[in-house]
Amino acid sequence: MGKQALFTRKSYVFGRVSISLLPDNTNITLQDCNMKYGFVRIASAVPETVVADCKHNIAGIEKLMREAEARKVRIMAFPEMCITSYTCADLFFQDALLDEAENCLQELAEATKDCDVTAIVGMPARKGATLYNCAVVMHAGRLLGAVPKTYLPNYAEFYEQRWFCSGKDIDNESIELCGMEIPFGTGLMFRTPDCTFSIEICEDLWATVPPSSIQALNGAEIVFNLSADNDVIGKYEYLKSILSVQSAKCICGYAYASAGPGESTTDVVFDGKSFIYENGTLLEQSERFPDRAQLICADIDTGFLRHERKVNTTFAENAAACKRKYNVIKIDQKEDTACDLLKHVNPAPFTPKGENMDEKCREIFNIQTAGLAKRMLHTHSRTAVLGISGGLDSTLALLATVKTFDRLGLPREGITGITMPGFGTTGRTHDNSVKLMQSFRVTTREIPIRQACLQHFSDIGHDADIHDVTYENSQARERTQIIMDVANQVKGLAIGTGDLSELALGWATYNGDHMSMYGINAGVPKTLVKHLVEWFADNEADNTSREILKDIADTPISPELIPTDENGKMTQKTEDIVGPYELHDFFLYHMLRCGAAPAKIQYLAETAFRGKYDNTTIKKWLETFIRRFFSQQFKRSCLPDGPKVGSVSLSPRGDLRMPSDASPETWINDLEQ
User: Fold this and answer.
1) Taking 90 as the threshold, does the pLDDT of residue 241 lie above it?
2) What distances in angstroms separate CA 665 from CA 190, 374, 524, 601, one per listed residue?
């Protein structure tokens, strides 16, 4: 079984965003899609406030709650002390202000009885004779719980210990607010039909072990931080780095809402910054120093977060050592309704983008060259052999091998590149292969395989006019035999050229191009192969090599195993047979990296490729991917060594331990349903 479709498409009666960890935060809207598959829409809001004017402040809060509800937000956070404002200072000692804050909280609850958004607001709250800096959770007119701040700053400008007491010793008690007894303490978490969330307040985040770390280890999937964070030079970027790292370490969504310009500017200025992160990735951020209220929204993929926690055994072990009993308060929100998807879904999750693209491409080449260099040193090899077809994969393998020899100080003549024209080789690919080897000054050999294959067909009694799997795979195995034998001749390593996408689809001839002494491209998917070749052409190649590399990148992908037409043109194109590689790489990433089920992958693909592929086409190739991925595992079970480059690898020794005879029907059923 080789580079041929292994089945025909059938009809079955039995029965979608870094999301990459990506710098591009462009919103893509998909109309009338249910917010399911684990997506939860959250918001951070900064209302217009006036210091100590609670009625004015709750009017702004209610307005933002209404706007959030219109935008299908499920949970939202407001800044620290947003009902009174944060900068009331010694006015916090005045019962008039404290009474007004509580009365206004009740007014806000009454006014939003019909609002299905769960809101978290900040205010001072009394318990007996003690005052606490609290976050109060409310939904549909009901107060559900109050969480006190754990760590109180004692900075000159923020000496909170003058006014408030820490809630660190209050685990699960009650407090009277608005005439009601509600849960109170740092041991509270909240559960909606969509997720479990927790709360920390401003300074809590800056602690060596923030409360959110313990909360996440005990089940919180989204953390909300009510903050009043003043602005000084350099603090903004520092805060972003802390938020990114904390959300990544906790494998959680993290919403941060900080006080805005309505606060007092007696000694400091507040810029109204708000952020929403997911597992280290910034999804949304507010404008700084606004002259109006702000509301930012983002969709958190809790399905992805749960998958990450499940496969990250360090997280599970840490959780076992940090057990704490939390009172989880259930919030009876209505079922989610249809809405647009705000999350950016990257159609090319393996391809680096943004300002650090050059750095990432160099890093990939460094990983490949470091892997091959170690293998050559270990085997005392000073030569390497690889087949050069004029296609993308062998080109990348040659580039990485050349860089390895340069790194080791070995002459490039020690690299033997062999072009092996067969029945389907075109003039374009043949000429490019020869010119490419010459441009990099490697030893160039040409060994045609037509006569050897014809002799083999005669030996096994195969009709050379029957262009079946035997016809195709015989050529691939003949080429591999030549590469291996020449490697023995020159006492070198046979370098494999097959990529990650081909391994996922099983688009390789067993014991043909499937086999090598070191598979240097094993961790690089096809979309990234093309990107790296183009990047090398633009950044490291001389003028002659650049022209060749650009033409190779523009050549249709083909194994060239079927004879050319009467004009010598290519008749076999891989993507016509197995489908577009950009789709298959997308499927591969979301299935293995994110643990997404086929229905969610379809949903995400429809978002990412909207306007390029219709839903029927996506579903067709997704089913093809699933069936091939399962049926071809036997080829991956005996892969040669090769370096892992990104977060997805198919090595049977570590990243994918999968039985070769597993059934795909559960995955097909999920897609069909």
Assistant:
1) yes
2) 37, 42, 28, 16
